[in-house]
């Protein structure tokens, strides 16, 4: 948990529930630490490397009505870029043209991100402030976030100034695997299957020769 995460996440209502369950004392000290030294938390190489390996994440924004909105953002591993120790960004691809997240951010720039590594049961949560950047605003930035090998229409870039983050426990994360993550195991099975098929063919041929 980064220094300022608790001071953002653990509101009075949250701390009241923590008090009911016996964890308020432990987390209360973290709230005090974050409140006493206001600022933003720096990303380390661990967070940067982790994000660079993800092929998707969940993005939450807040609407004018106060309702939260959660949307999945995906792409090839590496589509999330760490621009510096406080900023991450990605190319925003054309979707269903509802523009709910984009519209929400234009009115309230606060966002939350959850990036999951299902295979290794890891989860990174981020609080930050988002801003939209178009090709007209900064063509070089948008180009730097673009992967020409990925078949998608890029409408804008999104930059998030990271305020705080927390590595969540791995409990209850169901292991899931992408095709790429399974490929090494599948390749080994393919090799074993080919070897067995070749051996079976040789044995059939030997059996046939013996019966002639």
UniProtKB/TrEMBL annotation:
Keyword Coiled coil tagged: yes
Which Gene3D superfamilies does this entry report, sorted A to Z? Electron Transport, Fmn-binding Protein, Chain A
Q: Does the keyword Coiled coil apply?
A: yes
Q: Which residues form the Pyridoxamine 5'-phosphate oxidase N-terminal domain?
A: 44-142
Family matches, as InterPro entries: Pyridox_Oxase_N, Split_barrel_FMN-bd
Name the SUPFAM superfamilies on file: FMN-binding split barrel (SSF50475)
Q: Coiled-coil ranges per the record? A: 179-206
Q: Which UniProt keywords apply?
A: Coiled coil
* PANTHER family per the UniProt record, alphabetical: FAD-BINDING, PUTATIVE (AFU_ORTHOLOGUE AFUA_6G07600)-RELATED (PTHR42815)
Supply the name of the protein.
Pyridoxamine 5'-phosphate oxidase
């Amino acid at each position: 948990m980064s220094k300022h995460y608790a001071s953002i996440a653990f509101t009075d209502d949250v701390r009241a529930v923590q008090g009911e369950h016996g964890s308020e004392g432990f987390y209360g000290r973290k709230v005090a630490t974050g409140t006493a030294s206001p600022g933003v938390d720096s990303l380390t190489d661990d967070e940067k490397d982790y994000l660079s390996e993800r092929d998707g994440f969940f993005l939450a924004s807040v609407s004018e009505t106060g309702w939260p909105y959660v949307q999945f953002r995906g792409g090839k591993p590496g589509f999330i870029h760490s621009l510096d120790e406080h900023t991450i960004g990605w190319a925003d691809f054309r979707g269903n043209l509802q523009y709910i997240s984009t519209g929400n951010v234009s009115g309230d720039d606060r966002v939350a991100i959850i990036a999951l590594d299902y295979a290794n049961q890891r989860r990174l949560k981020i609080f930050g402030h988002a801003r939209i950047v178009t090709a007209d605003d900064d063509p070089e930035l948008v180009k730097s976030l673009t992967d020409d090998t990925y078949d998608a229409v890029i409408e804008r870039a999104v930059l998030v100034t990271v305020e705080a983050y927390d590595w969540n426990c791995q409990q209850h994360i169901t292991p899931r695997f992408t095709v790429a993550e399974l490929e090494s195991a599948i390749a080994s099975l393919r090799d074993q299957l080919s070897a067995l098929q070749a051996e079976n063919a040789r044995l059939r041929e030997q059996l046939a020769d013996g019966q002639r």
